[in-house]
Amino acid sequence: MTAISGKVVAITGASSGIGEATARLLAERGAAVVLGARRTERLDELARDIRDHGGRAIACATDVTRREDLEGLVGRAVAEFGRLDVLVGNAGISRLGPVADLDVDGWSAMIDVNLRGVLHGVAAALPVFRRQGRGHLVTTVSTSGLKIVPTQAVYAATKNAVRTLLEALRQESTDGVVRTTAVSPGFVNTELTDSIDDPRAREQARRTMDRIAIPPEAVARAIAFAVEQPHDVEIGEVTIRPTVQG
Ligand code: NDP
């Protein structure tokens, strides 16, 4: 038995990287996991693999830009496992480039996934958390929001908007129903750099990743640490970066 045993955890962006590693670790520690993302073949394979190793997992096609998909993800958790203890709002994209490039479509895409996607999760999960009398919202933000660097303006802005959202939600939750945790990873070796359109920014990000990035399992351990605390203990913010990251 672990402190995570029996918890029901829904994770967006579970088809790769940090979301996948988090699903594997929490399932290994006894959680039932509900996996959301758009690439359903990857989700199905992951859910099968977790079940083959004795865990409980189901896949649920989810595009976080669609509010009804988040309602569906949360609804599946409740329908299959009877409740939702934790929502990990992790789906994200990174379309980096100088502001002067005026990549307005990229800005909109990041706002839609990184910010609106989390808000859709909040809208779906909060009523369930309130009905249950408890629940935990974890989001993957970024050290990009803590140390502002060129080419990351809008990406960092979406992450800081989510940070602000969680802090406000925390202050509005002094009745003890909702816990919030903002996890800020630094450079983590995942497929995230694939979503960078600007070739210079992509190349630079890949070079940095190859040099210093930590594995997604490191972030999964930080999320597990927050999830496994007793309900009266809230891990508000966790920053986890390569030791050599500036
Ligand atoms: P990945 O690219 O490996 O994972 C991103 C995940 O988001 C995928 O599962 C993808 O699934 C999902 N996703 C993207 N768009 C949507 C959408 N519209 N609806 C649902 N799911 C979507 O990268 P990471 O694991 O690194 O990223 C996870 C989170 O961590 C992101 O929020 C990212 O910003 C954050 N982060 C990452 C860092 C890093 O260095 N890697 C550093 C700091 C923060 P699919 O395409 O199947 O829908």
Automatic annotation (TrEMBL):
Keywords: Oxidoreductase. The keyword Oxidoreductase applies. Residues 7-187 form the Ketoreductase domain. InterPro entries: KR_dom, NAD(P)-bd_dom_sf, Sc_DH/Rdtase_CS, SDR_fam. Belongs to the short-chain dehydrogenases/reductases (SDR) family. This is SDR family oxidoreductase.
